[in-house]
Amino acid sequence: MTDIQGPARLGKEPVLKHVGVDNKPVCELRVNFLNYRANKQDLDNPIDSGFWAQVNIWGKFAEPASRLFSTGDKVYIAGELDQDTFTPKDANEGDDEVKIMHVNTNLIFPWTTDIDSLTFNERKGLQKSLTSNNG
Q1: Is 25 strand, coil or helix?
Q2: Cα separation of 86 and 101, whole Å?
Q3: Domains in the chain, ordered, with CATH?
Q4: For the segment 41-88, what is each residue's pLDDT rounded down to a tens digit?
Q5: Alpha-carbon distance 99 to 84, whole Å?
Q6: Which ranges constitute the DSSP H helices of 49-114?
Q7: Stretch 111-130: mean pLDDT, rounded?
Q8: Per-residue buried b or exposed e for 68-81, using 16+ beta carbons within 10 Å of the residue's own CB
């Protein structure tokens, strides 16, 4: 596996599933990793030479991610990249196998360039310690 990180855009709505004997949550995202390069003919419109990947968010972050993100959202993802091949059910004899890129991650953030402001609230149930260092 190869480490990968970078900005991406969601291509469809997240899907929350529960898999395995222990019913472990996983959020599946279809994203396009963005890789812009200069367009020599039109400097104001860079060329997107990114690639599509299936992103799986496992465990306690799966359910919040399925609610937080929507189609078209820009996100920043860090994870492990792997490639898989399969033959579609409707493939004809002689058709090529389909290759798909998978990214397993627990680290995904909204892409901050589109955020105007953030509000942080104090976590409920935590008490602040008010100790003084003034002797």
Answers
A1: strand
A2: 11
A3: 2-110 (2.40.50.140)
A4: 887 776 667 888 889 998 888 998 899 999 999 988 888 888 877 777
A5: 6
A6: 62-68
A7: 61
A8: ebeeebbbebebeb
